[in-house]
Amino acid sequence: MRELKKIFTIICITGLVAACNLDYFPSDESTAGALRDSYNGLVYATDGNYSMFKDPLEYKGTTSSSYSYLRRQYEMAEYPSDEIVVSGRTTSTLFQAYTYERNASLQNVSYVWWSGYKIIYGANFVIDAIENGTSEKLDYLKGENLFLRAIVHLQLVNLYAKPYSYGRENPGIVIRNSSVIQNTERASVGEVYDQIEKDLTDAIKLMQHGTRRGNAGYASKEAAQGLLTRVYLHMGKYQEVIDLVDEMLDGATAESKLESTGNFPNYFKNALNSKETLWAVAMTTYDSQGQSNIGSMYLNDGIGWGEVFSSDPMNDLYEKNPNDIRYGFVLPQYLDETKWMIRYPMPGTDYRDARSNNIIDVQKDLTNQFYFMDDNNQKITIQTENVEGYTKHFIMLNGIKTQVRLTKKMQHRNSFPLYYITKYSYQDGDPMLSSPVMIRWAEVILNRAEAYANIPGKESNALADVNIIRNRAGLSGNQLFSTSNMQGYNNVLDVVLDERHLELAFEGHRTLDVYRNKKNLNREYAGVHTWEIINYNDNKVIYPIPFDEISVSGIAQNPDY
Q1: Cα(166)–Cα(170) distance, rounded to whole angstroms?
Q2: Does residue 284 carry a pLDDT above 70?
Q3: Which residues form the RagB/SusD domain (predicted)?
Protein backbone atom coordinates (compact mmCIF):
# COMPACT_ATOMS: atom_id res chain seq x y z
CA MET A 1 0.00 0.00 0.00
CA ARG A 2 2.79 2.42 0.88
CA GLU A 3 4.43 1.73 -2.51
CA LEU A 4 1.15 2.30 -4.36
CA LYS A 5 0.71 5.68 -2.64
CA LYS A 6 4.30 6.52 -3.53
CA ILE A 7 3.65 5.79 -7.20
CA PHE A 8 0.52 7.91 -7.17
CA THR A 9 2.43 10.76 -5.55
CA ILE A 10 5.02 10.55 -8.32
CA ILE A 11 2.24 10.83 -10.88
CA CYS A 12 0.89 13.92 -9.11
CA ILE A 13 4.30 15.55 -8.93
CA THR A 14 5.02 14.97 -12.59
CA GLY A 15 1.78 16.73 -13.45
CA LEU A 16 0.01 13.90 -15.18
CA VAL A 17 -3.02 14.64 -13.07
CA ALA A 18 -3.65 18.33 -12.64
CA ALA A 19 -5.67 18.04 -9.46
CA CYS A 20 -4.44 14.97 -7.64
CA ASN A 21 -6.88 13.69 -5.09
CA LEU A 22 -6.95 10.24 -3.55
CA ASP A 23 -10.75 10.48 -3.54
CA TYR A 24 -10.74 10.15 -7.32
CA PHE A 25 -8.39 7.18 -7.40
CA PRO A 26 -8.32 4.99 -4.26
CA SER A 27 -4.76 4.27 -3.23
CA ASP A 28 -4.97 0.60 -4.17
CA GLU A 29 -5.90 1.54 -7.75
CA SER A 30 -3.83 4.64 -8.33
CA THR A 31 -0.74 3.19 -9.91
CA ALA A 32 0.76 4.34 -13.15
CA GLY A 33 -0.32 1.03 -14.59
CA ALA A 34 -3.93 1.62 -13.58
CA LEU A 35 -3.98 4.89 -15.43
CA ARG A 36 -2.36 3.34 -18.49
CA ASP A 37 -4.67 0.33 -18.59
CA SER A 38 -7.93 2.22 -18.23
CA TYR A 39 -9.48 4.40 -20.91
CA ASN A 40 -11.00 6.60 -18.21
CA GLY A 41 -7.61 6.81 -16.53
CA LEU A 42 -5.98 7.95 -19.78
CA VAL A 43 -8.76 10.49 -20.30
CA TYR A 44 -8.13 11.76 -16.78
CA ALA A 45 -4.39 12.05 -17.44
CA THR A 46 -5.06 13.80 -20.78
CA ASP A 47 -7.38 16.32 -19.19
CA GLY A 48 -4.65 16.95 -16.64
CA ASN A 49 -2.29 17.74 -19.51
CA TYR A 50 -4.73 20.31 -20.87
CA SER A 51 -5.07 21.78 -17.39
CA MET A 52 -1.34 22.29 -17.03
CA PHE A 53 -1.49 24.97 -19.73
CA LYS A 54 -3.60 27.16 -17.45
CA ASP A 55 -3.31 25.95 -13.86
CA PRO A 56 -0.82 27.43 -11.39
CA LEU A 57 1.74 24.72 -10.69
CA GLU A 58 3.92 24.40 -7.64
CA TYR A 59 7.33 25.71 -8.63
CA LYS A 60 10.37 25.44 -6.39
CA GLY A 61 8.15 24.90 -3.38
CA THR A 62 5.80 27.82 -4.12
CA THR A 63 2.37 27.97 -5.71
CA SER A 64 1.31 31.33 -7.12
CA SER A 65 -1.52 32.37 -9.42
CA SER A 66 1.12 33.88 -11.69
CA TYR A 67 2.77 30.45 -12.13
CA SER A 68 0.88 29.54 -15.28
CA TYR A 69 2.52 28.17 -18.42
CA LEU A 70 -0.08 29.96 -20.55
CA ARG A 71 0.52 33.38 -19.03
CA ARG A 72 4.30 33.19 -18.90
CA GLN A 73 4.64 31.75 -22.40
CA TYR A 74 2.29 34.44 -23.69
CA GLU A 75 4.28 37.23 -22.04
CA MET A 76 7.52 35.94 -23.54
CA ALA A 77 6.02 35.71 -27.04
CA GLU A 78 3.87 38.86 -27.16
CA TYR A 79 5.49 41.50 -24.96
CA PRO A 80 8.72 41.91 -27.00
CA SER A 81 6.63 42.93 -30.03
CA ASP A 82 5.70 46.38 -31.33
CA GLU A 83 2.00 45.88 -30.57
CA ILE A 84 1.94 47.05 -26.96
CA VAL A 85 3.30 49.72 -24.69
CA VAL A 86 3.99 49.03 -21.03
CA SER A 87 3.22 52.24 -19.19
CA GLY A 88 5.54 51.89 -16.22
CA ARG A 89 8.32 49.91 -14.68
CA THR A 90 7.41 46.80 -12.75
CA THR A 91 9.19 44.02 -10.93
CA SER A 92 7.16 41.46 -12.88
CA THR A 93 8.93 39.33 -15.45
CA LEU A 94 6.64 40.80 -18.08
CA PHE A 95 8.76 43.94 -17.88
CA GLN A 96 11.95 42.01 -18.64
CA ALA A 97 10.25 40.37 -21.61
CA TYR A 98 9.03 43.74 -22.88
CA THR A 99 12.41 45.45 -22.52
CA TYR A 100 14.50 42.57 -23.89
CA GLU A 101 16.28 42.25 -20.56
CA ARG A 102 17.39 38.65 -20.64
CA ASN A 103 19.21 36.42 -18.24
CA ALA A 104 19.18 32.71 -17.64
CA SER A 105 17.93 32.97 -14.05
CA LEU A 106 14.74 34.98 -14.66
CA GLN A 107 11.62 33.31 -13.36
CA ASN A 108 9.72 33.33 -16.66
CA VAL A 109 12.73 31.93 -18.56
CA SER A 110 13.02 29.04 -16.11
CA TYR A 111 9.33 28.46 -15.47
CA VAL A 112 8.19 28.21 -19.10
CA TRP A 113 10.97 25.72 -19.86
CA TRP A 114 10.18 23.65 -16.76
CA SER A 115 6.39 23.68 -17.09
CA GLY A 116 6.54 23.16 -20.86
CA TYR A 117 8.49 19.94 -20.42
CA LYS A 118 6.12 18.96 -17.62
CA ILE A 119 3.26 19.10 -20.14
CA ILE A 120 5.36 17.18 -22.66
CA TYR A 121 6.07 14.47 -20.06
CA GLY A 122 2.36 14.18 -19.34
CA ALA A 123 1.61 13.83 -23.05
CA ASN A 124 4.33 11.19 -23.41
CA PHE A 125 2.79 9.16 -20.60
CA VAL A 126 -0.46 8.80 -22.56
CA ILE A 127 1.22 8.40 -25.96
CA ASP A 128 3.43 5.58 -24.69
CA ALA A 129 0.43 3.83 -23.13
CA ILE A 130 -1.62 3.53 -26.32
CA GLU A 131 -0.85 1.17 -29.16
CA ASN A 132 -2.09 2.43 -32.53
CA GLY A 133 -5.20 0.69 -33.81
CA THR A 134 -6.43 -0.63 -30.47
CA SER A 135 -9.67 1.32 -30.77
CA GLU A 136 -10.96 4.47 -32.40
CA LYS A 137 -11.39 6.16 -29.02
CA LEU A 138 -7.85 5.38 -27.91
CA ASP A 139 -6.41 6.46 -31.26
CA TYR A 140 -8.16 9.79 -30.91
CA LEU A 141 -6.88 10.24 -27.37
CA LYS A 142 -3.34 9.50 -28.49
CA GLY A 143 -3.77 12.04 -31.29
CA GLU A 144 -4.79 14.69 -28.77
CA ASN A 145 -1.60 14.13 -26.79
CA LEU A 146 0.57 14.14 -29.90
CA PHE A 147 -0.96 17.53 -30.68
CA LEU A 148 -0.20 18.81 -27.17
CA ARG A 149 3.39 17.53 -27.37
CA ALA A 150 3.81 19.20 -30.76
CA ILE A 151 2.49 22.63 -29.80
CA VAL A 152 4.62 22.83 -26.66
CA HIS A 153 7.78 21.76 -28.52
CA LEU A 154 6.92 24.42 -31.11
CA GLN A 155 6.38 27.13 -28.51
CA LEU A 156 9.65 26.25 -26.77
CA VAL A 157 11.75 26.16 -29.94
CA ASN A 158 10.25 29.52 -30.97
CA LEU A 159 11.31 31.07 -27.66
CA TYR A 160 14.70 29.47 -27.02
CA ALA A 161 16.10 28.94 -30.53
CA LYS A 162 16.58 30.89 -33.72
CA PRO A 163 13.86 30.70 -36.39
CA TYR A 164 13.97 27.77 -38.79
CA SER A 165 14.59 30.18 -41.67
CA TYR A 166 17.99 31.06 -40.15
CA GLY A 167 19.25 27.51 -40.67
CA ARG A 168 18.28 23.94 -39.78
CA GLU A 169 21.58 23.28 -38.04
CA ASN A 170 21.31 25.97 -35.39
CA PRO A 171 20.96 24.68 -31.82
CA GLY A 172 17.33 23.95 -31.00
CA ILE A 173 15.90 22.60 -27.77
CA VAL A 174 15.74 19.22 -26.09
CA ILE A 175 13.37 16.78 -27.81
CA ARG A 176 11.52 14.60 -25.36
CA ASN A 177 9.35 12.03 -27.09
CA SER A 178 9.26 9.29 -24.47
CA SER A 179 8.18 9.05 -20.86
CA VAL A 180 10.97 6.53 -20.23
CA ILE A 181 14.05 7.88 -21.99
CA GLN A 182 14.61 11.51 -21.03
CA ASN A 183 17.01 13.05 -23.52
CA THR A 184 19.15 15.88 -22.14
CA GLU A 185 20.93 17.04 -25.31
CA ARG A 186 19.89 19.94 -27.53
CA ALA A 187 18.71 18.83 -30.94
CA SER A 188 19.14 21.05 -33.97
CA VAL A 189 16.31 23.38 -34.97
CA GLY A 190 15.70 21.17 -38.00
CA GLU A 191 15.43 18.01 -35.89
CA VAL A 192 12.95 19.69 -33.55
CA TYR A 193 10.77 20.79 -36.46
CA ASP A 194 10.97 17.33 -38.01
CA GLN A 195 9.68 15.85 -34.74
CA ILE A 196 6.86 18.42 -34.54
CA GLU A 197 5.88 17.71 -38.16
CA LYS A 198 5.85 13.96 -37.50
CA ASP A 199 3.77 14.34 -34.34
CA LEU A 200 1.17 16.44 -36.10
CA THR A 201 1.05 14.19 -39.15
CA ASP A 202 0.51 11.20 -36.86
CA ALA A 203 -2.08 13.11 -34.83
CA ILE A 204 -4.06 13.93 -37.97
CA LYS A 205 -4.18 10.26 -38.96
CA LEU A 206 -5.18 9.11 -35.49
CA MET A 207 -7.97 11.71 -35.17
CA GLN A 208 -9.40 11.31 -38.68
CA HIS A 209 -12.19 9.15 -37.31
CA GLY A 210 -14.30 9.97 -34.32
CA THR A 211 -15.36 13.36 -33.02
CA ARG A 212 -13.86 16.01 -30.77
CA ARG A 213 -14.54 15.20 -27.11
CA GLY A 214 -16.05 18.61 -26.41
CA ASN A 215 -15.75 22.24 -27.45
CA ALA A 216 -12.70 23.90 -28.99
CA GLY A 217 -10.85 23.47 -25.72
CA TYR A 218 -10.03 19.93 -26.93
CA ALA A 219 -7.69 19.09 -29.79
CA SER A 220 -9.03 17.73 -33.06
CA LYS A 221 -7.86 16.66 -36.50
CA GLU A 222 -8.59 20.18 -37.78
CA ALA A 223 -6.63 21.75 -34.91
CA ALA A 224 -3.62 19.57 -35.76
CA GLN A 225 -3.93 20.47 -39.43
CA GLY A 226 -4.15 24.17 -38.58
CA LEU A 227 -1.06 23.97 -36.40
CA LEU A 228 0.76 22.08 -39.14
CA THR A 229 0.11 24.94 -41.59
CA ARG A 230 1.93 27.21 -39.12
CA VAL A 231 4.81 24.73 -38.84
CA TYR A 232 5.10 24.44 -42.63
CA LEU A 233 5.11 28.24 -42.87
CA HIS A 234 8.00 28.47 -40.39
CA MET A 235 9.84 25.79 -42.39
CA GLY A 236 9.36 27.58 -45.70
CA LYS A 237 7.31 24.69 -47.09
CA TYR A 238 4.99 27.05 -48.92
CA GLN A 239 3.33 24.63 -51.32
CA GLU A 240 2.65 22.27 -48.42
CA VAL A 241 0.89 25.13 -46.59
CA ILE A 242 -1.31 25.80 -49.61
CA ASP A 243 -2.11 22.14 -50.21
CA LEU A 244 -2.98 21.52 -46.57
CA VAL A 245 -5.27 24.55 -46.31
CA ASP A 246 -7.04 23.43 -49.47
CA GLU A 247 -7.42 19.96 -47.96
CA MET A 248 -8.84 21.44 -44.77
CA LEU A 249 -11.38 23.46 -46.75
CA ASP A 250 -12.44 20.35 -48.67
CA GLY A 251 -14.31 22.38 -51.26
CA ALA A 252 -15.79 24.89 -48.80
CA THR A 253 -15.02 28.58 -49.05
CA ALA A 254 -12.58 30.20 -46.67
CA GLU A 255 -15.30 32.73 -45.80
CA SER A 256 -17.53 29.94 -44.49
CA LYS A 257 -14.96 29.05 -41.83
CA LEU A 258 -14.90 32.54 -40.32
CA GLU A 259 -17.28 34.22 -37.94
CA SER A 260 -19.46 36.73 -39.73
CA THR A 261 -18.74 40.43 -39.72
CA GLY A 262 -21.68 40.92 -37.38
CA ASN A 263 -20.54 38.25 -34.92
CA PHE A 264 -16.82 38.97 -35.01
CA PRO A 265 -16.83 41.76 -32.36
CA ASN A 266 -17.98 39.12 -29.85
CA TYR A 267 -15.76 36.34 -31.15
CA PHE A 268 -13.16 36.25 -28.38
CA LYS A 269 -15.84 36.24 -25.68
CA ASN A 270 -17.33 33.10 -27.23
CA ALA A 271 -14.24 31.50 -28.73
CA LEU A 272 -14.79 28.04 -27.26
CA ASN A 273 -18.04 27.61 -29.17
CA SER A 274 -17.09 29.39 -32.40
CA LYS A 275 -16.65 27.62 -35.74
CA GLU A 276 -13.56 29.78 -36.31
CA THR A 277 -11.64 28.41 -33.31
CA LEU A 278 -9.46 25.40 -34.00
CA TRP A 279 -8.00 25.24 -30.50
CA ALA A 280 -8.15 27.44 -27.43
CA VAL A 281 -7.06 26.98 -23.83
CA ALA A 282 -10.42 26.48 -22.16
CA MET A 283 -11.05 28.69 -19.16
CA THR A 284 -14.12 28.80 -16.97
CA THR A 285 -15.16 31.08 -14.17
CA TYR A 286 -13.78 28.42 -11.83
CA ASP A 287 -10.37 28.66 -13.59
CA SER A 288 -10.20 32.44 -13.44
CA GLN A 289 -7.12 33.76 -11.70
CA GLY A 290 -8.39 37.33 -11.45
CA GLN A 291 -5.53 39.78 -11.70
CA SER A 292 -3.23 36.99 -12.87
CA ASN A 293 -5.29 36.43 -16.04
CA ILE A 294 -3.82 37.67 -19.31
CA GLY A 295 -6.57 40.26 -19.65
CA SER A 296 -5.79 41.91 -16.33
CA MET A 297 -2.82 43.84 -17.75
CA TYR A 298 -4.85 45.07 -20.70
CA LEU A 299 -7.97 46.36 -19.00
CA ASN A 300 -8.96 48.14 -15.82
CA ASP A 301 -12.65 47.51 -15.32
CA GLY A 302 -12.63 47.72 -11.57
CA ILE A 303 -10.52 44.55 -11.30
CA GLY A 304 -7.56 44.56 -13.69
CA TRP A 305 -4.27 46.43 -13.62
CA GLY A 306 -4.80 48.15 -16.97
CA GLU A 307 -1.12 49.05 -17.40
CA VAL A 308 -0.41 47.69 -20.89
CA PHE A 309 -1.92 49.45 -23.89
CA SER A 310 -2.12 49.19 -27.65
CA SER A 311 1.00 50.83 -29.09
CA ASP A 312 1.31 53.79 -31.41
CA PRO A 313 2.36 51.63 -34.40
CA MET A 314 -0.57 49.34 -33.76
CA ASN A 315 -3.05 52.22 -33.54
CA ASP A 316 -1.55 53.82 -36.66
CA LEU A 317 -2.29 50.66 -38.58
CA TYR A 318 -5.86 50.50 -37.31
CA GLU A 319 -6.46 54.18 -37.98
CA LYS A 320 -5.49 53.79 -41.61
CA ASN A 321 -9.09 52.50 -41.95
CA PRO A 322 -10.99 53.72 -38.89
CA ASN A 323 -14.08 51.69 -39.87
CA ASP A 324 -12.11 48.44 -39.54
CA ILE A 325 -14.15 46.55 -36.92
CA ARG A 326 -10.95 45.03 -35.51
CA TYR A 327 -10.21 48.46 -34.10
CA GLY A 328 -13.11 47.70 -31.77
CA PHE A 329 -10.81 45.39 -29.80
CA VAL A 330 -8.97 48.54 -28.73
CA LEU A 331 -10.88 50.69 -26.26
CA PRO A 332 -9.59 54.30 -26.01
CA GLN A 333 -10.28 55.97 -22.67
CA TYR A 334 -11.43 59.50 -23.50
CA LEU A 335 -11.64 62.24 -20.90
CA ASP A 336 -13.62 64.59 -23.10
CA GLU A 337 -14.60 63.75 -26.67
CA THR A 338 -15.30 67.41 -27.42
CA LYS A 339 -11.70 68.42 -26.75
CA TRP A 340 -8.47 67.53 -28.53
CA MET A 341 -4.80 67.04 -27.77
CA ILE A 342 -1.52 66.36 -29.51
CA ARG A 343 1.44 64.41 -28.22
CA TYR A 344 4.92 63.56 -29.32
CA PRO A 345 7.78 61.59 -27.76
CA MET A 346 10.42 63.44 -25.78
CA PRO A 347 13.99 62.17 -25.29
CA GLY A 348 14.40 60.92 -21.74
CA THR A 349 17.25 60.53 -19.32
CA ASP A 350 16.60 56.83 -18.73
CA TYR A 351 19.62 54.65 -19.43
CA ARG A 352 17.54 52.68 -21.91
CA ASP A 353 16.72 55.83 -23.89
CA ALA A 354 13.04 55.37 -23.10
CA ARG A 355 10.74 58.17 -24.35
CA SER A 356 7.71 59.69 -22.66
CA ASN A 357 5.06 61.83 -24.37
CA ASN A 358 4.77 65.58 -24.31
CA ILE A 359 1.00 66.18 -24.21
CA ILE A 360 -0.49 69.52 -25.33
CA ASP A 361 -4.14 70.56 -25.48
CA VAL A 362 -5.22 71.95 -28.87
CA GLN A 363 -8.27 73.76 -30.19
CA LYS A 364 -10.28 73.44 -33.36
CA ASP A 365 -10.96 76.38 -35.67
CA LEU A 366 -14.59 75.64 -36.53
CA THR A 367 -14.64 78.11 -39.39
CA ASN A 368 -11.61 76.83 -41.26
CA GLN A 369 -11.69 73.27 -39.87
CA PHE A 370 -8.15 72.99 -38.63
CA TYR A 371 -6.53 72.40 -35.25
CA PHE A 372 -4.09 74.73 -33.54
CA MET A 373 -2.19 75.26 -30.33
CA ASP A 374 -1.19 78.42 -28.53
CA ASP A 375 2.51 78.93 -27.87
CA ASN A 376 3.20 82.24 -26.12
CA ASN A 377 0.10 83.73 -27.75
CA GLN A 378 1.26 82.45 -31.14
CA LYS A 379 -1.18 80.23 -33.03
CA ILE A 380 0.60 77.12 -34.32
CA THR A 381 -1.39 75.10 -36.82
CA ILE A 382 -1.51 71.30 -36.72
CA GLN A 383 -0.69 70.36 -40.32
CA THR A 384 -1.35 67.10 -42.19
CA GLU A 385 0.47 65.06 -44.80
CA ASN A 386 0.19 61.63 -46.40
CA VAL A 387 3.07 59.32 -45.56
CA GLU A 388 2.96 55.83 -47.11
CA GLY A 389 -0.81 55.74 -46.99
CA TYR A 390 -1.10 57.16 -43.48
CA THR A 391 -2.49 60.58 -42.60
CA LYS A 392 0.22 62.09 -40.44
CA HIS A 393 0.18 65.29 -38.39
CA PHE A 394 3.02 67.66 -37.67
CA ILE A 395 3.82 71.09 -36.27
CA MET A 396 6.60 73.54 -36.99
CA LEU A 397 8.43 74.59 -33.83
CA ASN A 398 11.22 77.10 -34.29
CA GLY A 399 11.48 76.06 -37.89
CA ILE A 400 11.77 72.36 -37.02
CA LYS A 401 9.19 69.87 -38.26
CA THR A 402 7.90 67.70 -35.42
CA GLN A 403 5.62 64.71 -36.00
CA VAL A 404 2.66 64.66 -33.57
CA ARG A 405 -0.35 62.49 -32.88
CA LEU A 406 -3.75 64.18 -32.83
CA THR A 407 -6.53 62.57 -30.76
CA LYS A 408 -9.51 63.45 -28.67
CA LYS A 409 -8.53 64.28 -25.11
CA MET A 410 -7.58 61.00 -23.42
CA GLN A 411 -6.71 59.59 -20.05
CA HIS A 412 -3.08 58.67 -19.75
CA ARG A 413 -0.72 56.89 -17.38
CA ASN A 414 2.80 58.28 -17.17
CA SER A 415 2.03 60.19 -20.40
CA PHE A 416 0.93 57.04 -22.27
CA PRO A 417 -2.71 57.21 -23.46
CA LEU A 418 -4.98 54.44 -22.25
CA TYR A 419 -5.78 52.31 -25.28
CA TYR A 420 -7.22 49.30 -23.49
CA ILE A 421 -7.22 45.91 -25.23
CA THR A 422 -10.26 43.63 -24.93
CA LYS A 423 -9.34 40.41 -26.75
CA TYR A 424 -8.85 38.72 -23.38
CA SER A 425 -11.93 40.02 -21.59
CA TYR A 426 -15.63 39.58 -20.93
CA GLN A 427 -16.12 35.85 -21.38
CA ASP A 428 -19.24 35.05 -19.35
CA GLY A 429 -19.43 38.73 -18.50
CA ASP A 430 -16.16 38.61 -16.52
CA PRO A 431 -13.84 41.48 -17.56
CA MET A 432 -10.77 39.39 -16.70
CA LEU A 433 -11.83 36.08 -18.24
CA SER A 434 -11.17 34.58 -21.67
CA SER A 435 -10.21 31.31 -23.28
CA PRO A 436 -7.07 32.36 -25.17
CA VAL A 437 -7.19 31.28 -28.79
CA MET A 438 -4.12 29.35 -29.90
CA ILE A 439 -5.17 28.49 -33.46
CA ARG A 440 -8.04 29.85 -35.54
CA TRP A 441 -9.16 29.84 -39.13
CA ALA A 442 -8.20 33.47 -39.78
CA GLU A 443 -4.58 32.56 -39.04
CA VAL A 444 -4.77 29.52 -41.30
CA ILE A 445 -6.02 31.65 -44.20
CA LEU A 446 -3.27 34.19 -43.57
CA ASN A 447 -0.73 31.34 -43.41
CA ARG A 448 -1.80 30.46 -46.94
CA ALA A 449 -1.60 34.14 -47.94
CA GLU A 450 2.01 34.34 -46.72
CA ALA A 451 2.84 31.11 -48.52
CA TYR A 452 1.40 32.49 -51.77
CA ALA A 453 3.33 35.74 -51.27
CA ASN A 454 6.58 33.75 -51.24
CA ILE A 455 5.86 31.95 -54.52
CA PRO A 456 6.55 33.99 -57.69
CA GLY A 457 3.43 34.48 -59.75
CA LYS A 458 1.04 33.86 -56.85
CA GLU A 459 0.74 37.46 -55.68
CA SER A 460 -2.92 37.73 -56.70
CA ASN A 461 -3.74 34.59 -54.72
CA ALA A 462 -2.07 36.10 -51.65
CA LEU A 463 -4.05 39.32 -51.98
CA ALA A 464 -7.28 37.37 -52.47
CA ASP A 465 -6.74 35.67 -49.10
CA VAL A 466 -5.91 39.00 -47.50
CA ASN A 467 -9.13 40.45 -48.88
CA ILE A 468 -11.16 37.60 -47.37
CA ILE A 469 -9.92 38.70 -43.95
CA ARG A 470 -10.42 42.39 -44.73
CA ASN A 471 -13.96 41.82 -46.01
CA ARG A 472 -14.84 40.10 -42.75
CA ALA A 473 -13.44 43.15 -40.94
CA GLY A 474 -15.99 45.34 -42.74
CA LEU A 475 -13.61 46.74 -45.39
CA SER A 476 -14.59 47.00 -49.04
CA GLY A 477 -13.99 48.85 -52.31
CA ASN A 478 -10.63 50.59 -52.51
CA GLN A 479 -9.82 49.32 -49.00
CA LEU A 480 -9.21 45.92 -50.60
CA PHE A 481 -5.96 45.05 -52.34
CA SER A 482 -5.13 44.13 -55.91
CA THR A 483 -1.91 44.12 -57.89
CA SER A 484 -3.06 47.47 -59.32
CA ASN A 485 -4.10 48.85 -55.92
CA MET A 486 -1.25 48.21 -53.48
CA GLN A 487 -2.19 51.20 -51.29
CA GLY A 488 1.39 52.39 -50.95
CA TYR A 489 3.01 48.99 -50.34
CA ASN A 490 6.02 47.96 -52.41
CA ASN A 491 5.48 44.21 -52.26
CA VAL A 492 2.80 41.67 -51.44
CA LEU A 493 4.66 40.08 -48.52
CA ASP A 494 4.55 43.38 -46.61
CA VAL A 495 0.80 43.57 -47.30
CA VAL A 496 0.36 40.10 -45.81
CA LEU A 497 2.52 40.82 -42.78
CA ASP A 498 0.60 44.00 -41.97
CA GLU A 499 -2.69 42.14 -42.36
CA ARG A 500 -1.41 39.51 -39.92
CA HIS A 501 -0.46 42.42 -37.66
CA LEU A 502 -4.03 43.73 -37.79
CA GLU A 503 -5.89 40.44 -37.56
CA LEU A 504 -3.71 38.57 -35.07
CA ALA A 505 -2.77 41.54 -32.89
CA PHE A 506 -2.06 40.72 -29.23
CA GLU A 507 -2.29 36.95 -29.90
CA GLY A 508 1.44 36.27 -29.64
CA HIS A 509 2.34 36.01 -33.35
CA ARG A 510 3.99 39.32 -34.15
CA THR A 511 7.65 38.77 -33.21
CA LEU A 512 7.64 35.36 -34.91
CA ASP A 513 6.16 36.89 -38.07
CA VAL A 514 8.78 39.64 -38.19
CA TYR A 515 11.88 37.64 -37.32
CA ARG A 516 10.84 34.58 -39.40
CA ASN A 517 10.89 36.81 -42.46
CA LYS A 518 14.27 38.30 -41.49
CA LYS A 519 12.85 41.76 -40.93
CA ASN A 520 13.80 44.21 -38.22
CA LEU A 521 11.39 45.26 -35.49
CA ASN A 522 10.89 49.00 -35.15
CA ARG A 523 10.32 49.99 -31.53
CA GLU A 524 10.97 53.68 -32.00
CA TYR A 525 7.82 54.79 -30.25
CA ALA A 526 7.07 56.21 -26.81
CA GLY A 527 7.20 53.73 -23.95
CA VAL A 528 9.39 52.54 -21.10
CA HIS A 529 11.38 50.39 -23.50
CA THR A 530 14.51 51.38 -25.38
CA TRP A 531 13.90 53.58 -28.41
CA GLU A 532 15.47 51.27 -31.00
CA ILE A 533 15.19 49.11 -34.08
CA ILE A 534 15.92 45.49 -33.21
CA ASN A 535 17.85 43.70 -35.93
CA TYR A 536 16.44 40.30 -36.79
CA ASN A 537 19.80 38.59 -36.27
CA ASP A 538 20.42 40.14 -32.85
CA ASN A 539 20.95 37.29 -30.40
CA LYS A 540 18.54 38.85 -27.92
CA VAL A 541 15.54 37.99 -30.10
CA ILE A 542 15.72 34.54 -28.45
CA TYR A 543 15.79 33.72 -24.75
CA PRO A 544 18.66 32.06 -22.90
CA ILE A 545 18.47 28.42 -21.91
CA PRO A 546 17.55 28.47 -18.19
CA PHE A 547 20.44 28.24 -15.77
CA ASP A 548 18.56 25.49 -13.92
CA GLU A 549 18.67 23.30 -17.03
CA ILE A 550 22.31 24.04 -17.80
CA SER A 551 23.38 23.35 -14.22
CA VAL A 552 21.76 19.90 -14.32
CA SER A 553 22.31 18.69 -17.89
CA GLY A 554 25.24 20.84 -19.01
CA ILE A 555 23.67 21.65 -22.38
CA ALA A 556 25.06 24.53 -24.42
CA GLN A 557 23.85 28.07 -23.75
CA ASN A 558 22.62 30.43 -26.47
CA PRO A 559 25.06 33.07 -27.78
CA ASP A 560 25.71 36.22 -25.69
CA TYR A 561 24.28 34.76 -22.47
Answers
A1: 8
A2: yes
A3: 300-561
